[in-house]
Amino acid sequence: MPCLSFVEQYDPHALATRARIRHRLRHRHLAQGAPTSPALANLASYRFDARVAGAAKAVGATYTRYADDLAFSGDTDFGREAQRFQVLVATIALEEGFLVNHHKTRVMRESQRQHLGLVTNQQPNVPRRTRELLEATLTNAARHGLASQNRRANPHFLESLRGQVAWVAQANPDHARKLRDLLRACEGQ
């Protein structure tokens, strides 16, 4: 914590702000959404990933992780053993210092939409509804101005739209072409 200036030492607002920051810094934390977040997540989970990937391979499954979401895919034999495999993964997670949210754990069959941050059935993709909402927002912003779509008064609304378009482009460049054109129309205003 940086030292307070002489004036700040007597400013109730500065003291309250400092107390809030000190309280937050007491607990282990990382900034969310930083460009370094994926790399840090990969570093923090390296041993976990190696152990889980080995366990998955041993039972004929494939392991995929997207940030903190884990996915395992395999044939019908693996499907029959999925419950026991969940216990093994939870045990490895605990041993590596992670917790599993069992309320979010689910087995998804081949016929279901498999969602892991991205839809992952055939190839990674942004959910259609999310893409359609982004396209509608960009279309309306291009027609009526950015302010008309910035309903939460986000001071970084354009940057947020750029990030969402980049996310779609990363998952599926073909789907991003139209969105990029609409974004350019918004930026030109």
Task: Show the helix and strand layout.
Layout lengths: L11 H14 L11 H8 L1 H13 L3 E5 L2 E5 L2 H5 L1 H14 L19 E2 L1 E2 L8 H17 L12 H15 L1 H15 L2
Antiparallel strand pairs: 1-2, 3-4
Helix pairs in contact: 3-5, 6-8, 7-8
**Order of helix and strand elements from N to C terminus:** HHHEEHHEEHHH
Report mean pLDDT, rounded to a whole number. 86
Strand content: 5-15%
Globally, the shape reads flat
- End-to-end C-alpha gap: 42 Å
Q: Tell me the structural class.
A: mainly alpha
| Topology, number of strands | 4
Identify the strand order in the major beta sheet. Answer: 1-2
In which range does the helix fraction lie? 40-55%
Quaternary organisation of the protein chains: single chain
Q: If you compute it from the alpha carbons, what radius of gyration comes out, rounded to the nearest whole angstrom?
A: 22 Å
Largest sheet: 2 strands, antiparallel
Low-confidence stretches: none
DSSP helical segment count: 8
